[in-house]
UniProtKB/TrEMBL annotation, chain A:
This is ATP-binding cassette domain-containing protein. Belongs to the ABC transporter superfamily. GO terms for biological process: iron ion transport. It comes from Methylobacterium nonmethylotrophicum. One of its GO terms (molecular function) is ATP binding. Keywords: ATP-binding, Cell membrane, Ion transport, Iron, Iron transport, Membrane, Nucleotide-binding, Transport. PANTHER family: IRON(3+)-HYDROXAMATE IMPORT ATP-BINDING PROTEIN FHUC, PETROBACTIN IMPORT ATP-BINDING PROTEIN YCLP.
UniProtKB/TrEMBL annotation, chain B:
This is ABC transporter permease. It is a multi-pass membrane protein. One of its GO terms (molecular function) is transmembrane transporter activity. It holds the Pfam family FecCD. One of its GO terms (cellular component) is plasma membrane. It comes from Methylobacterium nonmethylotrophicum. It comes from the Bacteria.
Length: 252, 316
């Protein structure tokens, strides 16, 4: 379970996250939506201890992220931010194996290897496992990073724009996999998403942010409405039901 | 890990063979008569060992630097490390001329660490970290530090000393005057003990934090290793350019950057390349010698150019 209490981040006089208090239940898929600059990534970064909070606290499974040793938290919480491109040239298998580092500290046991093999299989990466990261496509690299976080075997996983650089097929595939990780493996996944329709079709709960504040939290039925989206994004949209899913038309 | 480790073992065997051949060549090549066992024991063996230790150390320092800075074009001589170490040697020689060489080396390690930390600090402050501007910043930083050294040395009549640290040369290595370099081997083993952590640091700060590493501590330890290896090398053999640049890039191409696997290859290839350059330097104008740093500059510069063009052609 993830909880925040009055979580705030300031840069000088600018407040990018403004007193956010949330309780996100375990074993669910939570999407964070909002316009650019709404504070989504900053919120996620503070929960994942990549960014210190200016005020307030964040808890993962009851552990205060600012006070818990990094290696303890690394066994509870997996995080993945937008890929920054330049990185060490390692094979996909090695990258995924590094996901076991919080548990194995470099000495992989048979159980660790099983986790690695399982994560590779789950993301369909076995044929590519011995390729270097810079020899595969952006989508495959993205999947490799997700596999690493899954191999880490943490209850909670935070993802910042996991669909970046993915085409329609791979984006849908990725969301399906994440959904399965929640349903079949009981993970808690919190993802910043820009595609409102993916958020609507796959989430248990959506957190809508604007100007650093949480505007609304709830299941897609409550959030994906013309009124809420007008408030969040400041544009007029049309919500239509497609196969029972609330779908947003906003293209013209 | 099946295929790369099998491949790695193959390369390791090949590297070991090549290394042995080069070491043998280094023992055999020279003006003196080999029937004189004294020459082997006093000059050739120490010189060969010095080359192996310095080459391996500088290559290992290079790959650590590249992973920590997340840039393929940095190494101690393009990150301000080497020039800062030289400044330290100069200052301690001025202030305490009679200090034992270990003390001088420690001073050099301290200034090298400060210079490298400054380089990384400047890097983090840079809004746009383009691939090629990173080493340029390091070279400029090194230039400023080097200019300070030259000024001080000029005013204190120490230019000749400065030259011995700035130019890599092992022709004066004799028994009793290279043993400090074994420290570099110790440091290389320490780096190996940190292999996983350094590789993870090479994946970036976010990945390191995610995996529970104290990123700042790992980076600090890693640059302390780089600074110490550089200081030891400069104190005994002078600045040896390009080994730390070329070798890690070549090894990365064939075996990747997972240091637990690639570090022995990096060390072996670094030793081999330096041996090759020194043997060449002894043969080109036989019976005279060209300093190994000079040969390395030419060979390494050429290799680096090839690598640069290849990398640019190979990937976006």
């Amino acid at each position: 379970m993830i909880e925040t209490q009055d979580l705030t981040r300031r840069y000088g006089d600018t407040v990018v996250v403004d007193g956010v208090s949330l309780r996100l239940p375990a074993r669910s898929f939570v999407s964070i939506i909002g316009a650019n600059g709404a504070g989504k990534s900053s919120l996620l970064s503070m929960v994942s201890r990549l960014l210190p909070a200016s005020a307030g606290r964040a808890f993962v499974d009851g552990l205060d992220v600012a006070a818990t040793p990094g290696d303890v938290l690394a066994r509870r919480l997996g995080i993945l931010r937008q890929e920054n491109g330049i990185a060490a040239r390692v094979t996909i298998r090695d990258l995924v194996a590094f996901g076991r580092y919080p548990h194995a500290k470099g000495r992989l046991t048979a159980a660790d290897r099983a986790h690695v093999a399982d994560a590779l299989a789950f993301l369909d990466l076995e044929p590519l496992a011995d390729r270097f990261l810079d020899e595969v496509s952006g989508g495959q690299r993205q999947r490799a990073h997700i596999a690493m976080v899954l191999a880490q075997d943490t209850d909670c996983i935070l993802l910042d724009e996991p669909l970046n650089n993915l085409d329609m097929r791979h984006a849908a595939g990725m969301m399906g996999l994440l959904r399965r990780a929640v349903d079949e493996r009981g993970r808690t996944i919190v993802a910043v998403l820009h595609d409102i329709n993916f958020a609507s079709c796959y989430s248990d709960r959506i957190v809508a942010m604007r100007d650093g504040k949480v505007v609304a939290v709830g299941p897609p039925e409550e959030i994906v409405t013309e009124a809420v989206l007008r408030e969040v994004y400041g544009i007029e949209v049309e919500v239509v039901l497609v196969r029972g899913y609330r779908t947003v038309f906003f293209y013209r | 890990m099946r295929r790369p480790s099998a491949r790695g073992a193959g390369y390791a065997l090949l590297a070991l063979l090549a290394l042995s051949a080069l070491a043998a060549a280094s023992l055999l090549v020279g003006v003196g008569d080999l029937r004189d066992a004294e020459i082997l024991a006093v000059s050739r063996v120490p010189r060969t060992l010095a080359l192996i230790l310095a080459g391996a150390g500088m290559a290992v320092a290079g790959v650590i630097m590249q992973l920590v800075a997340q840039n393929r074009f940095v190494e101690p001589s393009t990150a301000g490390t080497a020039d800062s170490a030289t400044l330290g040697m100069l200052l301690v020689t001025l202030l305490a001329p009679d200090a034992p060489v270990v003390v001088k080396m420690l001073a050099a390690a301290a200034t090298a660490l400060a210079g490298t930390a400054l380089f990384l600090r400047v890097l983090r402050a840079m809004p746009l970290r383009e691939r090629l501007t990173v080493p340029l910043v390091g070279i400029m930083l090194g230039g400023v530090v080097g200019a300070a050294s030259t000024f001080i040395a000029y005013r204190t009549d120490m230019l000749q000393f400065l030259g011995t640290w700035q130019a890599g040369d092992v022709s004066t290595v004799l028994r009793g005057r290279y043993e400090l370099l074994w420290l570099s081997a110790v440091l290389t083993f320490l780096a190996y003990a940190m292999a996983d952590r350094i590789t993870i640091a090479g994946l970036g700060r976010d990945a390191s934090v995610n995996l529970g590493l104290d990123y700042r501590r790992v980076v600090a330890l890693a640059i302390a290793l780089v600074a110490s290896i550089t200081a030891v090398t400069i104190a005994t053999a002078g600045t040896i350019p390009f080994v730390g640049l070329v070798v890690p890039n070549l090894v990365s191409l064939v075996a990747g950057d997972t240091l637990r696997r690639s570090l022995p290859l990096v060390a072996g290839a670094g030793a081999g390349l330096l041996l090759l350059c020194d043997v060449l330097g002894r043969l080109i104008r036989y019976p005279f010698e060209i300093p190994v740093g000079t040969v390395m500059g030419v060979v390494g510069g050429g290799l680096f150019l090839v690598l640069l063009l290849r990398r640019d052609a190979g990937r976006a």
